[in-house]
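Hi R.,

As promised, here are both runs. First protein below:
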Amino acid sequence: MELKTVKIERADGIATITLNRPEKKNAMSPQLHREMKQVLTEMRDERDLRVIVLTGSGDSFCAGQDLKEFFAETYGKPEESSKVTRTAMEWSELLRLNDKPTIAKVNGWCFGGGMRVMGLCDIAIASDKAVFGLSEINFGIFPAGGALKVPIELLSHRDALYLALTGERLSAAEAEKIRLINRAVPHDKLDAEVTALAKKLIEKNPVALMLTKKVFWRDKFMQYTEAVDWELANFAVISEMTGGEWVKEGITQFL
């Protein structure tokens, strides 16, 4: 499939995926969902790829779903609507559970479903020009398809519900304060900050990174005793997968 709504750049083990509908503030259309599923499926098996960065073109990260193409044009067409929604959810899971570390480089407007996509990345670094919000309530609907669940996971009960009920906007500084993002940086330093972070991650053992993510996502929903068993089971896995490298090299470096 020829990519029309997504751009890909690869360099030094880092793949940057850019949502590329600047005239629509990178709102997610059915075409974009199909392309993102294709791209992330292909990247899943790229051995030389170590870090994935997700960003947007123009002055926006992502303004959420394209209300016209995603909702209005599929309204009353249950089969088509179901197919588009399924594709959107499938690539979201490819992002959330990706073996590789993922970084959201939030360059501008980030609303609704765009906040969901940002939140599904492992780490989020934002420009000080970025603006965030769950604006659905302003249109007489509510955040759905994960657009509410992700902020609930990231934020306190009070902050998540306040955003969903008021539809108010957050500045990058406010988003950092309530931990919606890891940090906000000056707009002209965003590229350099994200690249430096990606290079730092590349220095880590890729198997250790993969298993850290795998263990994290199950740990998050387990009771303490189950989580400890899960961690210990995967600790045995890392020894097997790396041939005991952490014992031979890691402990030596620590000592």
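And here is the second one, sequence first, then its structure tokens:
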Amino acid sequence: KVVDAHNGELSVSAATDRGNGAVYHNGEKMVISFFSNRDAYIKVYHIDVNGKMKLIFPNKYYSDNFVRKETLVQIPGRNYPFAFVLGKPYGTEFIKVIASTTQFKDIEKSFKDLGKATKGLMVRGLTIKQKKGDLAETLIRYTIVK
């Protein structure tokens, strides 16, 4: 089962093409897959080895962040005009996927340094309630080696 949601609450899960905790070598490409149990809008953040955070989806190459329920989505997809190529600095990095039943009011500029990710952002609960819709999030990790 990809998503285990209770009482119809929004739930999202994600993984790299090699699974959570995967190891990639310098220059290899990575694909991120995610799945939501309800129609949702998605934001995906990259948190590098140094804790710097960037919005990587939606982005300037693919701005449509709406996904249909129970549809496995891969970014970049086969027809996307970009790839995620891994490199220095080496070490453990994170991908944060956030799903919302309503469109986000704040979509940061893609690939722009958003500053240091706080511990609270990285480890807060997987599901919280918003006033105008549901919000769910998940965190995956991977390691880049030489």
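A quick note on the second one: Residues 1-6, 122-131 have pLDDT under 50 and may be disordered. Let me know what you think.

Best,
J.
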